[in-house]
Design goal:
By secondary structure, the protein is of the alpha+beta class. It contains 16 helices and nine strands. It has four domains: 2-77, no CATH class; 94-195, Tyrosine recombinase, N-terminal domain (DNA polymerase, domain 1, Orthogonal Bundle); 206-364, hpI Integrase, Chain A (Orthogonal Bundle), CATH 1.10.443; 393-432, no CATH class. Helix content is 42%, strand content 11%. A three-stranded antiparallel sheet has the order 1-2-3, with helices on one face. The chain has a three-stranded antiparallel sheet with strand order 4-5-6. Strands 7-8-9 form a three-stranded antiparallel sheet, with no helix packed on it. A hairpin with a 4-residue loop joins β4 (247-248) and β5 (253-256). The chain starts with a strand and ends with a strand.
């Protein structure tokens, strides 16, 4: 068995017994407890595979491939992995560097990448090598190949997805240029297009949210759902990294630390407080994380949520967790200034308008609920228009026209020339002298 522990300096380490009988310590350094637990899970699987002579799962194999060289070497030293083939740019001539080898080495060399970012870059690598060839020499890829890559991607994916992958491909080849492996970036002139896809926006109504909560198997999943739908947390990253010490019950605030941008503070919304209180009462003594059941970047929350939606009789909407956040931001903007809401959700106004804010049925109902009322250009509401407009007594003898008249009569002289204008206001008239 493998176990995780921390020394006095807070440095994590995993202690385990190798199948050959020797005890080993794998040092992780400064690492969050939840991330360390996910590494323990992988170590246990590798040890079991060595003991039984079987292969590790595809997920663990991908995890090994995504490790940084420094971390992978530690596994090699304790007998849990075979040495990698050396393929540094100093040992391989630029003309012989293949696309797959370079992109792999580029991703592995970025030690500070977050797990989800590393996973996304690996996914982009697989898309790139599938259409351009894993063994294709890096120098042989031309702007024409980049154009064909875009055309092939558009056959299978939306414009927004293709735009994202072109931007990442441009990032890979820019890094190759900086290392002197290629002279020009073949993707530099390929237009990426818009990453906004309005067809994948979906507003999750309060009624739908209640149906999902009723279909959840337990309070843990109800808490996961409300943290995204009513708290606006990114799931799974921010949801699974939420700790009890981040909740200020007295001030009604929650600190969100695991964020794509930076640490932010959100209100302890009344829609999520009851579920957090239940989780706090049910948590074991000394618990650190709010959600105990799942951990690590490999946690799959999409599949369980799909089962819950099926049980609730709802069809799965696009971008399951993103649209929960988008729905919450759309609601909050109706009640609070957009700069405040963006600070709570953790995005910019530009991103919010392009990828989050939506026009809902409630907006149309609100606009048409009082058809006899009119709106000023600046948003103010006029009073309902009355059929008859009375003239105040103070203006009855005024020669200036104060309100639109109900009837205009033109009086003429015997010669047929205008003599005066008769303005009638509900039976009472005033005569404007001839100009």
């Amino acid at each position: 068995m493998a176990s995780l522990c921390f020394d006095k300096k807070g440095l994590g380490q995993i202690q385990f017994r190798h199948p050959n009988g020797k005890r080993h310590t794998l040092r992780l350094g400064k690492v969050a407890k939840r991330l360390g637990e996910s590494v323990v899970f992988r170590i246990r699987e590798i040890v079991a595979a060595i003991r039984t002579g079987q292969s590790v799962s595809a997920d663990t194999a991908a995890w090994l491939g995504a490790l940084t060289p420094k971390m992978y070497d530690r596994l090699v030293r304790v007998g849990l992995a075979a040495p990698r083939a050396q393929s540094s740019p100093t040992e391989i001539a630029p003309a012989d560097t293949t696309l797959d080898n370079f992109v792999r080495e580029y991703i592995e060399g970025r030690a500070k990448l977050k797990p989800f970012t590393r996973r996304n870059l690996q996914q982009s690598r697989r898309m790139l090598v599938k259409r351009l060839g894993a063994g294709t020499p890096l120098r042989s890829i031309t702007p024409g190949d980049a154009d064909r890559f875009k055309e092939k991607m558009l056959e299978d994916y939306s414009v927004a997805t293709v735009s994202r992958e072109i931007i990442r491909a441009r990032q890979f080849f820019k890094a190759a240029m900086r290392r002197g492996l290629i002279a020009t970036n073949p993707f530099v002139d390929v237009k990426s297009g818009s990453q906004s896809n309005e067809s994948r926006l979906f507003f999750v109504t309060r009624e739908m949210a209640q149906a999902v909560l009723d279909a959840c198997p337990d309070n843990v999943w109800r808490l996961i759902f409300v943290l995204s739908r009513f708290g606006g947390l990114r799931c799974p990253s921010e949801t699974l990294e939420l700790k009890w010490c981040d909740i200020d019950w007295a001030a009604n605030r929650i600190v969100i630390r695991e964020s794509k941008t930076k640490t932010r503070t959100i209100p302890l919304f009344p829609q999520i407080r009851p579920y957090l209180e239940w989780a706090f009462d049910a948590a074991p003594e000394g618990s650190e994380y709010v959600i105990q059941r799942y951990c690590g970047a490999e946690s799959n929350l999409r599949t369980p949520l799909l089962r819950i939606l099926s049980r609730a009789g709802l069809s799965a909407w696009p971008r399951l967790f993103h649209n929960l956040r988008a729905s919450r931001e759309t609601e909050l903007v109706r009640e609070h200034p957009i700069h405040v809401v963006c600070a709570w959700i953790g995005n910019s106004e530009r991103v919010a308008r392009r990828h989050y804010l939506q026009v809902t049925d409630a907006d149309f109902e609100k606009a048409t609920s009082n058809p006899t009322s009119h709106m000023h250009a600046d948003g103010g509401r006029l009073q309902q228009v009355e059929k008859k407009t009375a003239v105040p007594t103070a203006f009855a003898n005024d020669t200036a026209v104060q309100v639109p008249p109900a009837r205009i009569e033109l009086a003429t002289s015997a010669l047929g020339k205008p003599r005066s204008i008769q303005l009638s206001y509900g039976g009472e008239g005033c005569v404007c002298p001839r100009m």
